[in-house]
Amino acid sequence: MSHPVDPYFYAWTRDADRLDAFVAALAALIEPGGKGSVSISTAGVRGEFEQADVSLEEMIAVLHSRFTSSSEANIYIPHRLPSRGGLANIQLRCFGPGWSGGRFPHDCLVAASGYTYLHPGVIHVGATLGATTTQVAAAVLSIMVQEDMEDILVRLCAPDDRNRIPTGGHTGTDAGSWGAPIELAATFNADGNVARDIALSWIYLRDGDRVGYIAGSSMETLMKRVEGAPRGSTVGVATRLRRVREHEGADYVVAAHDVAMRGTHVGAIRRVPRERLPGDVDLTREQVLQVLETPPGVLLDALDAAAVPDDEWRAVEPLAREAIEAHKQGSPTIEVDAMTDKQQRFLELHAPYHVRRLPNGGVLLATHPCRTLWQLWADALLLLGIRT
C-alpha cells in the first residue's frame, strides 16, 4: 500500500484581513463544541505561548490578544469529514507578514493534516458486486476524498459571505509548497476569474516567483508580466503528480542552492524557467495571453464541457456509489486498502473533474489529490481553439 496522499491547503489574503480570515476559517473548520490547541510565536519575543484543550471562543480570544504582524499561529483542531462522518485532526497555520523579518516567504494561511491523516489508508465499503476491484475501490476513494478535500478548501477560503480570500488551492503532493495552480488538485478564485490560475502558473514556471508571493496581484499586473516575456516563450507543464514532486524537489534542492538559478528576491525560488522533465508539455506565452483575453464566463463554459467524465470513470461510478450506499445502509462491509499503486494510477488518469460555482460568486476547480488540473485545462483550451 502506498502512503496516503495528504494535501496541503493554501489561501492568500491581504495583510489587513489576515487574522479575520484565519479566525473565520478556524470557526468554519472546527467540529462544533470541539476543543483544540494553540501556539503563537512572535519574532523578537522569547518563548512561545502554548495552550491545549481550549474551546473555539478561547482560541479566538488568544489570537486577538497575542497575534501580531510578526507572529505565527499554529492550531490543531478536530474536523468532521462529510463523506465518512468521522473526525480528523487538522493543523491550521497563519503567518503575519513580518514573521520572518522579510528573510523568508510564508504563505498567508495553510491547512494540512494534523495528528491524523485526511486521506484514508483503508476504506470500508458495502460487500457489493465488484467492490474489491481496483477500479471500483479507486472510484469509491475518489468520491469520498474529493468531497472531503473540496469541503476543507471551501471552508478555508470562503467560510462566509465576506470575500477575504481572493484565491487559494490545494495540492496532492506532500512537499508543502504552493506550486503552479494548473499542477494542483484544486483551486479557488473568489471573483470567478479562473484565468488567474493560468497567469500565476506561467509566472511561477517561467520567472520562478512563488505563487503565494504573487497571488494577490491584479489581473492587469499578471497580464503585464506575461506580456513582458519574449514572443514564442514556452514553459513545461508536468502532467503527472510524480513529475510535480520531482520538479518541487529540484526547485528546493538544486535551484535554491545554485547561484546561477537562485531567485533574486525573497519571493522567488529561482530566476530562470523551470527545467523540463520527460513528459512535460508546452504552454506558450501566446496561449496564456489568449486565455487572459477570453471572458471568464466563456472559460468556465469550456471548463464545464471539458469536465465530462471519461468512459473508464462512467463504467465504475455506479458500482462505487452502490458500494458506498450499501455501507451507509448498514449492509455487511469489507475493508479495502486505499492508495495501492494500481488505484493511484487509475485516479491519476480517470478521477473526475469538478467545476463548482459557489453561492458567493467564487469558483472551485477540483479533482482527486492523485491528479492535477492540467488535463482539464488542456481539454478546455482545445475546445476554445487555443491549443491544438
Structure description:
This protein is of the alpha+beta class and 388 residues long. The chain has one domain. It has twelve helices and 14 strands. The strands form three sheets. Strands 3-2-4-5-6-1-8-9-14-13 form a ten-stranded antiparallel sheet, with helices on both faces. A two-stranded antiparallel sheet has the order 7-12. A hairpin with a 6-residue loop joins strand 2 (35-42) and strand 3 (49-55). Helix 3 (134-157) crosses helix 11 (341-350). The longest helix is centred in the middle third of the chain and has 24 residues, at 134-157.
**Outline:** globular
Number of helices: 12
Secondary structure tally: strands:
14
Average predicted confidence as pLDDT: 92
SS class: alpha+beta
How far apart are the first and last residues' alpha carbons, in Å?
38 Å
Outline the biggest β-sheet. Answer: 10 strands, antiparallel
- Proportion of residues in helical segments: 25-40%
Biggest sheet: strand arrangement: 3-2-4-5-6-1-8-9-14-13
Which stretches of 5+ consecutive residues score pLDDT under 50? none
Tally of structural domains? 1
Write the layout of secondary structure elements.
Layout: E1 8-12, H1 18-29, E2 35-42, E3 49-55, H2 56-66, E4 71-80, E5 87-95, E6 109-113, E7 122-126, H3 134-157, E8 167-171, E9 186-189, H4 195-207, H5 211-214, H6 219-227, E10 234-237, H7 241-253, E11 281-284, H8 285-293, H9 296-306, H10 311-328, E12 333-337, H11 341-350, E13 354-357, E14 363-366, H12 374-383
Antiparallel strand pairs: 1-6, 1-8, 2-3, 2-4, 4-5, 5-6, 7-12, 8-9, 9-14, 10-11, 13-14
Helix pairs in contact: 1-2, 1-3, 3-10, 3-11, 4-6, 4-8, 6-8, 9-12
